[in-house]
Automatic annotation (TrEMBL), chain A:
InterPro entries: A-crystallin/Hsp20_dom, HSP20-like_chaperone, Small_HSP. The keyword Nucleus does not apply. Gene3D superfamilies: 2.60.40.790. The keyword Heme does not apply. This is 18 kDa heat shock protein. PANTHER family: HEAT-SHOCK PROTEIN 20 FAMILY MEMBER (PTHR11527). Keywords: Stress response. SUPFAM superfamilies: HSP20-like chaperones (SSF49764). PROSITE patterns: SHSP. Residues 34-150 form the SHSP domain. The lineage of its organism: Bacteria, Pseudomonadati, Planctomycetota, Planctomycetia, Planctomycetales.
Automatic annotation (TrEMBL), chain B:
This is Spore protein SP21. Pfam families: HSP20 (PF00011). Belongs to the small heat shock protein (HSP20) family. CDD domains: ACD_sHsps-like. It comes from Gimesia aquarii. Residues 16-127 form the SHSP domain.
Length: 151, 127
């Protein structure tokens, strides 16, 4: 059985680490601190005693540009966000000093529990935060099924 | 207006145990000045602090989590926290006339340019 000294066996890794450090040095990550969710919009889901609550951050959206639909226990959120040039007249691209915000069409579907009351679903949009309330259906009581004898 | 008028400083004033985010921004130039947009979802007018001091513009947006008590998180993709970002303004911005408006979680700041001084003729007197 071959025996290696512990440090020795790790040397190639350490060299690699040094190489990566050298490459990374001086590189500035421009996306640092900016939230980049994999799916837009990012959503949080909470459960309360009588409802489920879905929240999503959608700054700059207008309530009338938001479309919520529900079908087969899938809730679909859809909308579009206009870039600022539309609000401020024609702005040429070279006039932008910095552009970090994103615009355009987006859509996201979320599976929701079966046991919610679809007709009583409600949503509010304040300060760029969307909240969707999904009220739970009332618990069904077990129903007794009479059994008759075949006599 | 080609000087560095929007150098920001990151990572200062972080409150321990609380999330502080750098909001994404757009800056563009118009004839009258600079227009800055920042996404600040969850920030209300009352909890937004804008400050200009020594050529530094700082925006701090405080977000109060609006989740009812007893809510159990089932799925979480984003954190709720405060927003902080600061910029160095050029000397060409009239600080006293900066305007800001917050709509639907988006802050718009207008930074007016100072009017260019007309060249002034200097009389040279003979001794």
């Amino acid at each position: 059985m071959p025996i290696f000294r512990w440090e020795q066996s790790w040397n190639p890794l350490r060299d690699l680490e040094r190489e990566v450090d050298r490459l990374v040095q001086g590189v500035e990550f421009s996306v640092q601190g900016i939230r980049m969710p994999r799916q837009y919009p990012a959503v949080n889901i909470f459960e309360l005693a009588h409802e489920y609550l879905i929240t999503a951050e959608l700054p700059g959206m207008l309530a009338e540009d938001l479309e919520l639909t529900i079908a087969n226990s899938v809730l679909t959120l859809k909308g579009h966000r206009n870039p600022p040039e539309i609000a401020d007249g024609e702005i040429s691209e070279e006039r932008f000093r910095r552009q970090e915000r994103t615009f355009g069409e987006w859509q996201r579907s979320i599976s929701i529990p079966d046991r919610i009351s679809e007709e009583h679903l409600s949503a509010e949009f304040n300060e760029g935060v969307l909240k969707i309330h999904l009220p739970k259906l009332e618990e069904e009581q077990p129903r007794q099924i009479p059994v008759s004898s075949g006599e | 207006m080609n000087r560095q008028d929007s150098n920001e400083e990151r990572g200062e004033m972080a409150h321990p145990g609380q999330y502080v985010f750098t909001p994404p921004i757009d800056i563009y130039e118009t004839e009258a000045g600079l227009v800055l947009y920042a996404d600040l979802p969850g920030v209300s007018v009352g909890s937004l602090e804008l400050q200009v001091q020594d050529n530094k513009l700082t925006l701090l947006g405080k977000v109060e989590p609006q989740i009812p008590e007893g809510a159990q998180p089932l799925h979480q993709e984003y954190e709720v926290g405060n927003y902080l970002r600061s910029f160095i303004l050029s000397g060409e911005i009239v600080h006293s006339e900066i305007e800001a408006k917050l709509t639907n979680g988006v802050l718009r700041i207008f930074l007016p340019k100072a009017p260019k001084a007309e060249p002034r003729r200097i009389q040279v007197n003979t001794g």
